[in-house]
Design brief:
The protein is an alpha/beta fold. The protein is 38% helix and 18% strand. The strands form 2 sheets. The protein has a 6-stranded mixed beta sheet with strand order 1-2-10-7-8-9. A 4-stranded parallel beta sheet has the order 5-4-3-6, sandwiched between helices. Helix 3 runs parallel beside helix 4.
């Protein structure tokens, strides 16, 4: 089975007065355009996970996420596209929403578990699927060495060398893959991670566990806006203005915080004049449907 999506995401430049005043050029790797549902780092992380599952003759993908998980949606769509079965173990009480509707539409079976049990995902997998020889464990968000491998391919696709690369970080898998890609090409690019979680400095260890060799990177931990899926009126206002100015959809969970950080750092003269800055748009936009009331 050929596990591929034949699409090379484009790079677009963002023009803004703030960037002009800082004398920098800001570009976006539009991984959100890879696929309408299996987009961004969701596809990057799933690619080699799915290849591993197929190589092991596994046909039942079992993974984990919250009720508005972009990863669950991407996994359900990928399973349908490549002829596999899928089950999503969902954190929390049973609910119905747009994301889970789309998961079910793609054939994913949903199983809701309490939040305490959800913390031990291998135990949940063994409890429900130990006797299923076709079942294949996929960690929440696709966090894995295979996930990092897929994300490392971003760097080889770039048409030029950038002074800075930025991405939002939840598990650290994407930025670890980007660093590995930088190492493979021996580039001096400065890597910048914007943790979307409160107290995101813990990601330093998570990232280093997935590196092929050490490379300096910077965690910008002041842009979490209260923590995972938390927002403030300031963030929502920024997102609305950004979308209206660029026509590029971003969300409050991941990419909104990423771009807010880049704009804020530009105003604070973080970048040397003449710098070329690349932001990785990691897709996963469907979760915004669960936050409409904030807009």
């Amino acid at each position: 089975m050929d596990i591929e999506l034949d699409f090379l995401s484009p790079i677009h430049q963002i023009k803004n007065k703030i960037f002009d005043e800082a004398e920098i050029n800001v570009f976006v790797k539009r991984d959100d355009l890879i696929h309408p549902l299996i987009s961004g780092n969701k596809w990057r992380k799933l690619k080699y996970i799915l290849k591993k599952a197929v190589a092991e003759n596994k046909t039942h993908l079992v993974t984990f996420g919250g009720a508005y998980s972009n990863h669950l949606l991407a996994t359900s769509a990928a399973a349908a596209q490549f002829g596999l079965k899928s089950t999503g173990i969902v954190r929390g009480e049973m609910v119905n929403n747009d994301i889970l509707f789309l998961c079910k539409l793609h054939g994913m079976e949903l199983q809701f578990v309490d939040r305490a049990s959800y913390q031990d995902k291998p135990a949940l997998f063994n409890k429900y699927f130990l006797n299923d020889p076709d079942a294949f464990f996929i960690n929440e968000g696709g966090a894995s060495a295979e996930g990092a491998k897929g994300c490392s391919e971003i760097i080889g696709e770039l048409p030029q060398i950038y002074d800075h690369v930025f991405c939002a970080s939840g598990t650290g898998t994407t930025v670890a893959g980007i660093i590995n890609g930088i190492n493979e090409l021996n580039l001096k690019t400065q890597i910048n991670s914007v943790p979307i979680l409160k107290n995101g400095s813990f990601l330093e260890n998570e990232i280093e566990l997935l590196l092929n060799k050490k490379h300096p990177f910077t965690l910008h931990t002041d842009y979490h806006f209260g923590g995972y899926a938390k927002t403030t009126p300031e963030l929502i206002s920024f997102i609305k203005q950004f979308i209206a100015d660029t026509g590029m959809l971003i969300d409050p969970v991941n990419t909104g915080k990423l771009f807010y950080a880049i704009f804020d750092l530009a105003t604070k003269k973080y970048f040397k004049p003449g710098s070329n800055v690349l932001a990785i748009h990691t897709g996963g936009l469907w979760g915004i449907l669960g936050m409409q009331e904030k807009f």
